[in-house]
Structures
1.
Amino acid sequence: MQQIIKFIIRYKNFLLYIFLMIVSIGFTIQSHSYHQSRFFNSSNWLTGNILETSNSVSTYFGLDTENQKLMDENRRLRDMLFNGGETDSIVLDSTQRMYTITTGRVIKNSFAEPRNYITIDKGEKDSIKGDMGVITSKGILGIVENTSNHFATVQSILNEQSNINAKIKNTNHFGSLVWNMKRYDVVQLIDIPRLVKLTVGDTIVTGGMSSIFPEGIPVGTIRKFDLNSSNSFYNIDVALFNDMTNIKNVYIVNNAFREEIKELENKSQSNDQ
Amino acid sequence: MISNSYFLNVVRFILLVLVQVLVFNRLNFFGFINPMVYILFLYWYPIKENRAAFIGLAFLLGISIDFFSDSMALHAASTLTIAYMRPAIMRFVFGVNFEFQSFKLSNTTRIQQITFLTLLIIVHHLVFFTLEIFSLANFLLILKKVLATGAVTLILCLLFGSLFSVKKE
């Protein structure tokens, strides 16, 4: 017994180091294999408020470009409103609408790491929940992952765990949008079959297969493409429409029928087994 | 005198965390370089303090930065490692000298200080990026990030070090 106590006293620093190291590696590995850690994310109260304060100062430096972006979007929406002629068919009853939109602001953004997260200033109080889609006026941004009362973290499309359904515009060939961690302005579209005719510059939009994003949200254009190792699918480099380094105003998209779709899918899957 | 040194370290801790998360985590120099200047805390920390407290404090420093930057516990793990290895690194750089009572960091030569800081940074960045990327298949990517980020961190740390140089410790 004395020996053991002596041993512990002698190596107490080493044991402390090993203990804390196991704790931190545990947190790290857990989120590698599963999801972002539930505890260490910047949507909690203290970090959220500090980041928001800092953001409220730095917002002023980008007001010009932000205004320009919003003006551009308003112009485009007005174009659609005046020329589309579909105004009659808009359902005004909010319980009948499939998608509801909330606006938010980015208070923290990162794009240089393998797993990038964005923090926004809307949370559970604004009915933001996990797995909602986040877009900007130019294209998609990511998916809500954790929420607190006033803040939420968003898994950016620049995240090695990101996997979003996307397709080539005006066709029904869809694939998965992933990121190879190399460039912050390029993501990869995989699983597009070889028989599809591609051209550099083709537009990629979100597909309708996911219950998170509406169909047809712009993603980017084809930068280059080649066949993968099995020669049956394309690997496509997609240049993003969004400048991921410069994002301020975002829209959070909620699919009202998501729960229903998920439930149905789960039921069908459990029937298979 | 003792309370003064405690106070100094607390202020340093808070300032370095804020500077790191509000300024340097957003630098994105060349698209990927985010220097980690908070390593200076471990460089400046008094040598003859309780070692267990020092390791605990380093862990706390890392984890507070992790809270802000959504990086799981990467900063904590790497800061912890250099905190534990600091005596070994110091013995390597300064020889047996550093075990004497009269040893002061400011009494050593400039070259020794820079070597000490460089070793801290390299070990820290190696642990950090290895855990972050988490596969040896990307070894070149790890190496590239360690060297590029390490160089910028070193330069900034030296600048900060000479700006806020510690006269008495």
2.
Amino acid sequence: MKKIRIGIPYALYFYEYYPLWKEFLTRLGAEVILSKPTNKNILDLGVRSSLSEVCLPVKIFYGHVLSLADQVDYILIPRMVCVEKGAFFCPKIIGLPDMVKSSISTLNSLLVPLVDVRKPYGTWKNSLFQVGQLITDNSLAISRAFSISWENFQKNYVANLLDPKLLNPSLLAKDTKNVAQGLDKMTINININIAVVGHDYLVNDSYINLNLIDKLKKMNVNILTPSMVPPRIVKKQLKKLYKPIFWSLSRKAVGAALYYFENKVEGVIHLTSFECGEDSMVGELIHHQSKQYPEVAYTEFVFDEHTGEAGINTRLEAFLDMVRRKKQYEINFAPSR
Amino acid sequence: MKTFLGIDVGAVSTDLVLLDENNNVLSDVYLRTLGQPIKMIKEGLSIIKKENQGIFLEVLAVGTTGSGRVLAGAVVGADVIKNEITAHSVAALYINPEVRTIFEIGGQDSKIIVLQNGVVVDFAMNTICAAGTGSFLDHQAYRLGIPIEEFGEYALRSENPVRIAGRCTVFAESDMVHKQQMGYKEEDIIAGLCEAMVRNYLNNVGKGKKIAPPIFFQGGVAANSGIKKSFEKEIGCEIIVPEYYRVMGAIGAALLAKEEMEQNPRSSTFYGFELVDKDYQTTGFECDGCSNHCEVVEIMIDGELIARWGDRCGKWSLGYQPIR
């Protein structure tokens, strides 16, 4: 029998949940096809087919969906509503399956499982089960595949993230070369640590962020990302805020930013996309918190469709010059901090 | 004579500065880029050469800055290629080590730089909008039929500036047309424009920044005394426009080049003033190696490839390698 081919767009929340779905579907015997990392073609496809008001990452999601269209039997677009108490996904993500459906009429079947853990039928298990039933009738096999992949997802999630020494990065989803295009192992002996915080789909998508990570790497700094901060630390950091963060996908970024501030890394760069509703709040919040740590340089980079890199290069170079000159000054004149 | 050369290639102007060993300005050149940076760099160099006729100029180091810094660096064989924020702050700090805030408003960019103890601690650049920049003023001056050089004087003559929406160039313009049709005096409208631009700058670029005196105002727009006055009115303290406000970026680049040579002594990679006679060509092609279709640019001197960039993957990039 021919394997069912299921396409996963390499964008938005899949930076977080891809490993879970991939393992689950593969265990059930489906062939999982991950779209290619964002490129010009995907961006063009997305921009042409999406609404003009949505943010760039959503437009790019459309592009990934379209790029998969002819290669697969189904495209997986879970409706992510709520995965933890008191926090939700961005409205554009909740409505993503509908937006995609209404804008792209030519699509093959979409798989739209609901993930809303407040509801009995919206648990992860139910959600994956629903999809599993498409592939096989064997409920036992589905249950088993779920248990194992869920366990591995939880386990590796923590294993991939690291101890509080601000080192050793690694991204989620190391299992495929496709996804693990990101950061290499890094060492302690580089003396400038720059934290790049923001949504995973900005930090890890080198097309959207105009190769920021590579540029930083060339500048010889140690790069830190939100994924390197273990969930329990994120949780602890978020307690410092007078109010919990409302959006699941922003929690990690905020918690990581606070953690990096507290650990006095040399600089924190917050990435946001133009027109991002979450970031308009979260950005202010992080900026506000940064003021308590004047020794940590802070800046924000806004990304949109323009591919001109001049603006980002200037900001980045100036930011690092600032960090380096400040450090030099501290070494020469100031008592150690 | 031992000298240091600084070149600032911006969207609107190309500035060159030649400093002597004691950081005195020997020559400063301010040219409109007019979309032809290479030509303007050559022209600037020949002007410097002419101004210092009869003196043997030994250029110990060259620095480039501005949005065209990489191109300029390749064209002249620069020793240091630095962003304009660092360049502007280094120049301002040289003139006054106490400086705390720098407003830099150029043709396409506006920036604010916050300093403490002679070190940059914060900065911001205008993001997607160009409402608070020189191009906006240029455009409005052209619309009103007033030479941009006289814009400031008009504004100073006003006793009763009208309020103009500063949020967006498009709205500012329609607001301005409306005020014209209502019969407001030209100078009041111009002063209103200056105030709108300053408000926009402080709300966008300067948002949340600690603005403390002494404040330096540099970049092409600092020539506009109307803007300076509006800043003073809005902030309530003196704004200092340094003597060489137009070429501060280039001064900074020269100082940075000098600093680099002091830290890592070597001989300069500068091609010399003879480069003005050389033939520069730029060609480009679209790489079809992958679906990104990067636009690759090549710079050649007399048919010899000296630099290539524009690709994301680095397959083509030569960066810029100085040749001898």
